[in-house]
Amino acid sequence: MGCSSCSTGKDGQPKGCKNNGTCGTDGCNKLTVFDWLSNMSLPNGEKPFDCVEVRFKNSRKEFFRNSENLSLSIGDIVASQATSGHDVGMVTLTGELVRVQMKKKKEDYNNPELPKLYRKASQKDIDIWQKCRDREEEIKKRAREIAIVLKLQMKISDVEFQGDGSKATFYYTAEERVDFRQLIKDMAKAFGIRIEMRQIGYRQEAQRLGGIGSCGRELCCSTWLTDFRSVSTSAARYQQLSLNPQKLAGQCGKLKCCLNYELDVYLDALKDFPGQDTKLFTEKGMAFCQKVDIFKASLWFSYKDEPANWHILSKDQVIEVLEKNKKREKVASLEEYAVENVLEEEKVFENVVGQDSLTRFDTPKKKRSNRNNKKKKRTNYKKRPANNA
Q1: Rounded distance, CA 79 to CA 119, Å?
Q2: Reduced to 3 states, what is the DSSP secondary structure of residue 73?
């Protein structure tokens, strides 16, 4: 995703808006929402919805009440209420879609304790905010060094400053419970700010840090995915995928969230499909199912005595054989129903246009032997003595 100011620079290189995640058009940010009601006006007598959605660093979004009736639009920098002091964020959604989002996330918009928006951020607020954002990488590095000195089994993955610079939230991951009381004391003494430690999971860590997946696109969790559903290896089995943990795991170390995207389609297709443990009884012997192809609606079977010789049967043919087996009738053999035998054919590559020649595009050298022979004949003819008759 890119905003209108992310044009292409010299030599085809992306220019970028260089706003470090605070793009005014909200086109370069994570979890961007398209307001499809922005060009529609409210009916007569209807008041605009008094809640807005504000995004802070990375994927943290919260809802605030616009009690001051500020005229806000997507991309405005605002100062919002915090537990102590104020925070600075960017408006990502306004209007009736905020009501839909709050209902989806089970937020009560009639709650009187909903935090409020103070004002649009002044230039002083933005300067303090940017200054704090610039300090985050340095403080994160120093905090990791302190944790290593204290020998704590934890990984500090991200740091988020409050907008007024009075508080910093450290996000960390750990396998077990960590006693970080001494860590908080040392960091508060070193940085001179209030410290809050918040443990997150590995999926949330990948969501905050972002990255490029094996598909070549940005991670789903850091761009548009908001809910993390549990992913099991059965999702890979239903889709006939190889159970290779290196291919099925994402950057968070867990199973990829995209394994659930097409799972419902596969489950619907497998409802009227014979199971993987199907057995067929023939006069030639019992046959086991070796492989299932959902797209081609075919199954591979092999005899118990010939496991290497596979036979392809369509789904309807397998159902027909199963119905006969239920009646205690055996078919003659699978060859009568088989479409073809699956045998690995050796690939033969032929050199059709002489592509193995490295000099096929070189200009051929002209032959000079004929010219030399002609020159020799001419000289011999001139030196020949005249005949005196």
Answers
A1: 6
A2: coil
From CA 107, how far away is CA 161, in angstroms rounded? Answer: 25
Class level of CATH domain 127-205: alpha beta
Tokens of 262: 């097409």
Contact between 66 and 50 under an 8 Å Cβ cutoff? The reply is yes
The backbone torsions φ and ψ at residue 202, rounded to the nearest 5 degrees and listed phi first, read -70, -30
What phi and psi values does residue 217 have, to the nearest 5 degrees? -110, 165
pLDDT at 342: 47
**182-196 per-position pLDDT tens digit:** 999 999 999 989 999
- Count the residues in the chain: 389
Q: What tokens does 183 get? A: 């860590």
Domain coordinates in residue numbering, the chain: 31-121, 127-205, 229-271, 279-342
The single-letter code of the amino acid at 303 is Y
Structural element, H or E, at residue 289: strand 286-293
Q: Which amino acid is at 59?
A: S
At 269, the amino acid letter reads A
Rounded Cα–Cα distance for residues 220 and 229 (Å): 13
Tokens read off for 27: 């086109």
Give the predicted TM-score (pTM) of the model. 0.68
